[in-house]
Design goal:
alpha/beta; 5-stranded parallel sheet; 5 strands; 172 residues
């Protein structure tokens, strides 16, 4: 079971994210502002962080940069979850240290798939599934059953489809 910190100031969004995290078999730690989130992260050393970008007291970009400075947090997944949907917002989140970006409102399945990219069935992190370590297809040529061309002008949509295809690839 992974311990996932959710930093979200809107009560309904926090509840939805908490339910999704728990439903995926993980423990949910929560904070409702950036300073509290940073404090919990430093104290609890979560396995992953879901962070809203527009937070009171300390914004999500600053929270992400501060968490990334911690030695224990260099490689944990940090996922921006925000209503900001412009390409520049995604790039700014990645520059701050976020590994992925989910635009609100999101479908619960979208967040479950993204968590599945980093964690299996409520278990330990999948170190090999970090975005920086994925091949273009996400699987080795030996594991391919065929080819799928994914065309979309939104890079995150392409990434989600690739993740979904990787998840349904049967083992050899």
């Amino acid at each position: 079971m992974a311990r996932i910190l959710i930093i979200e100031d809107e009560a309904n969004n926090l509840d939805v994210a908490r339910r999704i995290v728990r439903g995926a078999g993980h423990e949910a730690l929560t904070a409702t502002d950036g300073l509290a989130g940073l404090e919990i992260a430093r104290r609890e050393h979560p396995d992953a962080v879901l962070v809203d970008l527009l937070l009171p007291k300390l914004d999500g970009w600053s929270v992400t940069r501060a968490i990334r400075e911690e030695p224990w947090a260099k490689k944990i997944p940090i996922i921006a979850v925000s209503a900001l949907a412009m390409h520049a917002d995604r790039e700014r989140a990645r520059e701050a240290g976020c590994d992925d970006f989910v635009t609100k409102p999101y479908a619960p399945a979208e967040l479950r798939v993204l968590l599945g990219k980093y964690f299996t069935d409520g278990s330990a992190p999948k170190a090999a599934m970090r975005p920086s370590e994925l091949s273009a297809s996400g699987i080795s040529p030996a594991e391919r059953l065929g080819r799928v061309l994914v065309v979309d002008d939104e890079p995150s949509n392409v990434e989600l489809i690739v993740i979904a295809l990787v998840m349904v690839t049967p083992p050899k």
